[in-house]
Amino acid sequence: MAADAVAAAMAASSLCDDLEPATVRTCIRDVLAAGAARAGERVVVGGWVRTGREQGKGTFAFLELSDGSCVSTLQVIVDAAVHPLARLTATGTSVLVEGEIKEPPEGTKQNVELKVSRVLEVGEVDAAAYPLPKGKVKLTLEKLRDVVHLRSRTNTIGAVARIRHQLAYATHRFFEENRFLYVHTPIITTSDCEGAGEMFQVTTLFSQAEKTEKELKENPAPSESEIESAKVIVKEKGDAVAQLKAAKASKQDISAAVDILNRAKEHVSKLEERSKLKPGIPCRDDGSIAFENDFFKRQAFLTVSGQLQVETYACALSSVYTFGPTFRAENSHTSRHLAEFWMVEPEIAFANLQDDMNCAEKYVQYLCKWLLDHCREDMEFMVKNYDKSAIERLELVSSTPFVRISYTKAVELLKNVTGKKFDNKVEWGIDLASEHERYLTEDIFKKPVIVYNYPKGIKAFYMRLNDDDKTVAAMDVLVPKVGELVGGSQREERLDVLKQRILDAGLPLEPYEWYLDLRRFGSVKHSGFGLGFERMILFATGMENIRDVIPFPRYPGRADL
């Protein structure tokens, strides 16, 4: 079988003789990790020049090359005889080179370098126009948002990208190891999970209106007289068919006359349809927008959460999760808000609030431990440049049991704080502000905290009402640096209670009938939570602005690319 497989592969490869041979490229991370152990080996590497300088009166050049596989760069040495040096040294130039790994002279900071024997490819740069500066000169993170298509070439955004990748990979690993199924929930929805109303609308009514207005200008709607004239023709053609039948004409003649009649009827139908075309957005008699004319025949939105949909799978497959983009049309310009962000949302059948808290704690600790084990170089970069306590924070959270206290107890502790004045007054019934959350985890307990049993008035309709009729079985995981990292709850599984909670929230029942069906047909106790993925990256890296931990940030006034 093995020989057959090799023969098949060789036969397949022979079909591609007209293509360039594949490039077997070694990533810079692997070269640097092996160090002197790979000295003397010939490799092909590719990357972008961070800094380049000619030396020896133009006889050779040093290039600091990065391919994004790690923070560190590889020093590449190119002789003028190999390639014109002026075409290689500009910051931002891309090169693919072949050469020999060598040990550098003693006293240099590099552990290996590459002596180039062939330059295979070059992507040149107009140095005067290239927006990223050379060497140690840095643009602010705010300025980098103006060149979002190039900012991933910087050390900071590259490190954040690798950390983000590892957190995403660890997320799937954690849920796979705990027997969860990954479910893709819809981005377009007709349900408002949060009940806040701050949703982006999905509609084709505007494009339809523009198309109709253009069409009416080019071909105005028919007048009533035009339609009546067309109807007269239909009557004439109908009479002609009747006369042919009465005269017992041939089938061929009758069939031809019927075809003419049908075309006349179709023309009338099209005229009548066109006469209904009106410029502008279609509205009902009461002035409200006629969404029945929209693409989905009803109002539709970009999702704020996949939770409600993923519950349908939890109520059949037991343990599931969704991980995808969510959207909020909140006109906020703070460093903690985005219009598009990613959420990790597991849902567990046969689980109460205690089970929910246990899962959230295990998951957050798993992520922290994963970064410590698999992203050490990037985390050390963040410690050196942004947050000296970033690694210590990961170590604390990954190894320390989370404190668990009720909302009522949390409010009591905060009200008794002396020597600290909060900007937001603390009283039972408020939604704890970030300053309260951080004080609990950073100052009072100095470790992660889970607050549970929140007032029902500040939480969503789907959270299970407690026996006191004042609180719901909700929980938030609070961590240093960011405050709330996870929000979750036991879901309301009682049909009558859930119906009333929807109505109390001022929401119509009709869009949630499918959600109520989960309670009508085999209702089950279940729980879940949501982790804001960008918040997790903020917590891990110590970065200050959420716009710098997502590849293409969307916020009021900006949706570049």
From TrEMBL:
The keyword Protein biosynthesis applies. GO terms for biological process: asparaginyl-tRNA aminoacylation. Residues 320-551 form the Aminoacyl-transfer RNA synthetases class-II family profile domain. Its EC number is 6.1.1.22. One of its GO terms (cellular component) is mitochondrion. Gene3D superfamilies: Bira Bifunctional Protein, Domain 2, Nucleic acid-binding proteins, S15/NS1, RNA-binding. Residues 226-282 form the WHEP-TRS domain. It catalyses: tRNA(Asn) + L-asparagine + ATP = L-asparaginyl-tRNA(Asn) + AMP + diphosphate + H(+). Keywords: Aminoacyl-tRNA synthetase, ATP-binding, Ligase, Nucleotide-binding, Protein biosynthesis. It holds the Pfam family tRNA_anti-codon. HAMAP family: Asn_tRNA_synth (MF_00534). Belongs to the class-II aminoacyl-tRNA synthetase family. This is asparagine--tRNA ligase. It comes from Panicum miliaceum (Proso millet).
